[in-house]
């Protein structure tokens, strides 16, 4: 399975129903993708954003596809996460960047990163949306069966299919295999993939 169309065809054949429409299948795949984004966390989802502010900056905007911080650095120095209360209880001078916290749509940086510095955010990003049958993403590239079974589970609930529990079990097995791979990679200090930097 190389793209959404391939996944859709496999879901259609597995359901083996004459009353399932393309609109239904698109909805099941979208719901399945959202579920995978809630359940899966691995280095294959890692993305890096770099900000180089012209003047002092005490925040970085959270990207739309953000799921979880892996690391936040200013000029290569790793910052330590803290609670919002701890963040505001600490007074820091400009350039004295040690901590960060999340507030609304921003990651706040203690003190402020000086102008001309490099702020690097490494984070886990949601798998990309699949608007067309020709669309693909990192989940389909690595584990198309996870998306297929996630879509089948939603379809099974909708149609009250007798195999829904079996599809749910297969989905969780597939996600477990992905987690086992991630654990092995972390133990070996390996990396699945880091996407190219995007510059603000």
Give an account of the 3D structure.
The chain is of the alpha+beta class and 200 residues long. The protein has helices at 4-15, 22-39, 84-89, 138-142, 144-159, 164-187, and strands at residues 46-51, 57-61, 66-74, 77-78, 80-81, 99-103, 106-113, 119-125, 198-199. The strands form two sheets. The chain has a five-stranded mixed β-sheet, with no helix packed on it. A four-stranded mixed β-sheet has the order 2-7-6-5, with no helix packed on it.
Mean pLDDT: 91
**Largest sheet at a glance?**
5 strands, mixed
Q: Please provide the count of β strands.
A: 9
Q: How many structural domains does the protein architecture include?
A: 2
Order of helices and strands: HHEEEEEHEEEHHHE
**What integer value in Å does the Rg equal?**
21 Å
- Residue stretches low in confidence (pLDDT < 50, at least 5 long) are 194-200
**Strand line-up across the major sheet:** 4-3-8-1-9
Secondary-structure map:
Blueprint: H1 4-15, H2 22-39, E1 46-51, E2 57-61, E3 66-74, E4 77-78, E5 80-81, H3 84-89, E6 99-103, E7 106-113, E8 119-125, H4 138-142, H5 144-159, H6 164-187, E9 198-199
Parallel strand pairs: 1-9, 5-6
Antiparallel strand pairs: 1-8, 2-7, 3-4, 3-8, 6-7
Helix pairs in contact: 1-2, 1-5, 2-5, 5-6
